Amino acid sequence: MKIPDKIKIGGKTYTVEVTDNLMLGRASYTAEVDYFNLKIRILPNAKEKMEADFLHETVHAILDFLGYREHDEKRVDEMAQALYMVIQDNPDIFGGYHRQQWEAVRDVLYEGDKKIQAAFDRVDDIVKTPELKTIMAEMRESVYNTDRETACRIKELLGGAENGTEE
Description:
Layout: E1 6-9, E2 12-18, E3 31-34, E4 39-42, H1 47-65, H2 73-89, H3 91-94, H4 97-126, H5 130-158
Parallel strand pairs: 2-4
Antiparallel strand pairs: 1-2, 3-4
Helix pairs in contact: 1-2, 4-5
């Protein structure tokens, strides 16, 4: 799940900030929603904690939009935690972009390989001297090594096959 920079709730756009300073002064809280300045502030914590806090404050903002001024913290937290579990347990619905990103990157890399191979084939037809053929062979090796390293790095960044993507 990605914590956005902004979220629109009931026609109002709330700015989302990860900050060390909560403005509403509650020392035991790790996040807050400021209805007047349209801000959701979240203290830096573990990723999962921050995501759950973001949903908790989002539930508060939804209730405020619906006209509920008194919010039962226990119920708000239960709703936020349940919503968080649904989002985490259904990545194809709420976070399937990850798989789509990897597939798009993979397609670009494969398409790039085809284009590079075709370009080298065309150059090989043109290059006749042994010196140029040697230079082209070194370039080909360099490009393929770079592409493999880039592909592996992208795969690492996107989670690769371990997170349900195909190679």
